[in-house]
Amino acid sequence: MALQYNGTLLALSMLLLMSMKSSCSSKVGTVNGDIGTPIEEVGVIDTNSSPSDDQALFYSYDAYAGRLNLLDGSSQTLRFSETWQVQGDGLDQAWIAGPEGRFFFGVKDDQLYIYRSGEAGELVNDFAGKLNSYASDPEQGFYVFVDSFLSILVLKVSEDGNIAGSWLGGSILDGESSIKAGDILTGGVFLIATTDGTLLSIDMEQSIAQQTWVTQEHSPAIGNPTWIADTGYQGAHALILDSDNVLYLFDAIDGTIVQQEEVKSVLTRSKSGDDHLIVRRDDNNAYLIHGSDGTAWQEYLLPSLSVTLKETKVGDGYLMAVATGSVSQFYKLRLSDGLVERRVEIKSYDKVGFTTDHIILFQDSPLGYIQMIDFDSSEEVIFSGFNLDSLQD
């Protein structure tokens, strides 16, 4: 074991390539709806668009020190952002990055703040309910935040974090049905499903301009949609799951169903890395489903692991997962042939992040504690006590 610690403060602009789409848990769902990614999934964020070790960077907000921990897996160094004072009372639940780290959203129960480099946090909105989930289209500057009453805040934000427009709307669209599930798809389409099974695309720009929901209705009948996920396909394809375990691949541009299948059960739904599901078609076999090639979703038969997968992430042709049992273990599985390349026993953690080469375990601690494991060398690096300077201030 080695202790490496670099206390050099970084400017916020140094935190590059941070992606709101990355998260670290397979838990999905909110009290009243399922829109985007649950706030509870936000923990250690992998800054890679793919799990390439050349840019194995992770960040996590440290509420005790009021700053971001930035961990470089390649150089095995820990650095810090500048310090931000926590706004309001208590600790932030989540810290969500905008494009290239130019600004950040801080979530604290029912309050949403925005932080820009060198500035104190600005209160964006004080919701009636606790913030439950978010969705984003950083390329076009749109961000959506949803509270426990399904109040939906749509923001248009500039590259530097200035709010150009906003609209806070309720979940009822036509007096007869309300929003039940949704997400922002690759290509900028905000696709939602209502309680009567209708699929709608929300025009975020016009909804902000007109201060009302501006929508386009799609005609296909999809029972009772409960979960919508992005496939990463530029043609705005969505994976949609309904209450009868029927899975659809839907084209949100043409408004057509590309593929559909009823599955026996759904084991996991996750928006970590590539949005994905793990399903059973029968009692014996489990399949991972994600993405789209334009004509069908991608699917892979998984080997039997005889464990419960607690947290899953898909990227770069691999399934990475934390499995629970008598001990917690990390699995790295190659999707093309089901090869389990790595299995590592891990200790307790509060937040976890991983690429194909590293797993990062953060523990919430006043003193600070981070464990990094390299899969190829099995080297374990411990960072501890790095918050002492902030506690002494």
Automatic annotation (TrEMBL):
Q: Give the domain of life.
A: Bacteria
Q: Supply the InterPro entries for this chain.
A: Quinoprotein_ADH-like_sf, WD40/YVTN_repeat-like_dom_sf
User: Which Gene3D superfamilies has this protein been placed in?
Assistant: YVTN repeat-like/Quinoprotein amine dehydrogenase
Q: Which keywords does the record carry?
A: Signal
- The stretch of residues making up the signal peptide is 1-24
User: Which ranges form a coiled coil?
Assistant: none
**What protein does this entry describe?**
PQQ-like domain-containing protein
Species, as recorded: Pseudobacteriovorax antillogorgiicola
